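Appendix B, Record 12. Input sequence as logged:
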Amino acid sequence: MKHLLAASLLLAAAGACAVDDPALGADTSDLLTTSDTDLAVECTGIVTYTNWASFAELDSYLPASTASAIVARRAVTPFVDIADISSVAGIAQARLAQITGRAYTYDFIDADCAGVYEELAVSHDDAAAILGYVNATPVAVLEDVLRFDKHTVAPLIVAARPIATLQQLADIYGIGPSNFRALRDAAVTSPFDELVSRVNTLGQDVTLTTDFDWFATMYAQPGQPTHLECFGIDPAFVVDDLGGTVRPALADDAEVYGRVASAVALADRYHQVGDATAGLANLAAAVAGQSFFGCYLSFAPDPWSGINRAFYVNTTTGYRVLVETRWSE
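Logged structural output:
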């Protein structure tokens, strides 16, 4: 029998999973995850369970050393997401699956949470969106989305179709946490994605994208290079190969947000983009408190025009943004 205590704790916990019960009002579960997070709202109970479970409960299915490490770690500060739990020695995907199973057994989560795959907790709707995306997207587009070994992994995804489950997807060679997360991000349209689409549709000297190969972008030369400054990238590429410079400090959230917001304002100088509030707020949430490697690049296709590019890649999650602005006399 599922424990009533666990269920009551779940309902009381801040951010606990929404309950699909007409008696409780409108259902807020099964939402798409539009932020750069490893924890869908519907799966928050996994973290709640990990903070709640006694040593005896954890020791009943985990190695004693892992159970002890969880208890010792949360005594310092409670767990907040999947990456936080994964940071404990002895916990990787297999242990996360066990923890998720126990969270389900004790009613901390239900079917609205599809589970944890490649250290990413996804909702039921996330899962449907991901499977729909990988089964329908052309290989060339998949190559733009994938973050590692894209020319190998994208054809393997296509060859595996139809992909029926997230586990089948995760089992494809080369998927891994970063590529799985990239596919989730690409499958779900966020408010920032919608803003990017509106900006790019205008075609007014500004292009934004979150799907690009940063290494290829660094080497691309749409004109005579006039400036290259990077941060967090091996000087052997930047200085030795390209003759650029490397600054010591990574980019922070304010730098990324400021560059994107300025580009959006430039695109909207004739008031054609529409309300950017939701999109920029979504970006702000995605980059908050994060650090990024990347580059600033400038080119002169001819004496009368110029291209400026900036790209940023989250050092932990791989989330990325490319900003291009163009000018001409």
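DSSP finds 16 helices and nine strands in the chain.
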